[in-house]
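User: Please check token order:
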Amino acid sequence: MNNIASKENMKKILFICHGNICRSPMAEFILKSKTKDCYVESAATSTEEIGSHIYPKACEQLVKHGIKNFENKRARQVKKSDYEEFDFLIIMDEENRYGLIKIVGEDKENKIHKLLDFSCDEKIKGQDVLDPWYTRDFDKAYEDIEKGCIGLIKYLKNN
């Protein structure tokens, strides 16, 4: 990936969910809106939505919070090479961990983390970001993802 190679001095973060149409692209664009100090992408563990746009309800959440410039995002699946190319592979839930390990293999460098492990909100710290595709609660998903991204930024500044 040439665009990653040009960002050598930045932390490279890959957000991962099942289809790459709801949670992980929301995380990608939330983090991009909050910091320019990281190179950020998102991907899926499944092949179900490859090439699809961000789900409309997820787009509505981004727009509602003043986040733009996501129109060209298309879902892609994680590649084995992503493990070497990114510093952090951040999953939304434990099911994503299982799917990710099947693709990239063992996490020998401790790069795989759950997003809410970074949250400063003790009520949700360590929990899964529930999939709004199933819960239909895109407000809650956005709120949890934002809290995780804010905590991630703090973590990166301190480590």
Strands lie at 11-17, 38-44, 88-91, 112-114. Residues 1-5 have pLDDT under 50 and may be disordered. Residues 17-158 form a domain with the Rossmann fold fold (CATH 3.40.50.2300). The chain has one domain: 17-158.
